[in-house]
Write a structure and sequence with these properties.
The chain is mainly β and 132 residues long. Helices cover 10% and strands 44% of the residues. The chain has one helix at 11-23; strands spanning 39-48, 51-60, 68-74, 86-89, 94-100, 106-116, 119-122, 126-130.
């Protein structure tokens, strides 16, 4: 007959392990998404017939409905939200804007963003080259 040994963690060791995982961002037991900003991702950037179309998507609405979404862009470095800003009404899905007249044979840097009363969600910078 084999004797089984029951493995138990002392409560303080369990609490220390749980706290360590949580502080490293590996465990979201205590994350409160009821008061959070929205999240956004890129869908596409295309240029056809001298019109560049940028499209983003809300991936998480956050605590409140998205009230503003938009894009910003710049031709020589990473844009901040005030550079060539395009503002659109809020959405809970995809959103797009058309930008006519960008210079051919040039590279532009874009970001998409969304906003609710708890803050902004912003994408990484996307690079787009417009051919001759």
């Amino acid at each position: 007959m084999t004797k089984r040994t029951k493995l138990t963690l002392p409560p303080l060791l369990f609490l220390a392990l749980l706290t360590g995982l949580w502080s490293c961002g590996k465990f979201d037991l205590f994350e409160d998404k009821s008061k959070s900003a929205p999240e956004v991702e890129w869908v596409s950037i295309n240029t056809i017939n001298d019109i560049t179309t940028v499209t983003g998507r809300v991936t998480f609405e956050g605590a409140e409905k998205v009230s503003i979404c938009g894009f910003c862009y710049k031709s020589n470095e990473t844009p901040d939200m005030t550079d060539n800003q395009i503002l659109l009404d809020g959405t809970d899905g995809k959103f797009s804007a058309s930008i006519p007249g960008l210079k051919k044979d040039s590279t532009y840097y874009f970001k998409a963003f969304v906003y609710n009363n708890y803050g902004y969600g912003i994408t990484e910078t996307k690079t787009h080259h417009i051919s001759k």
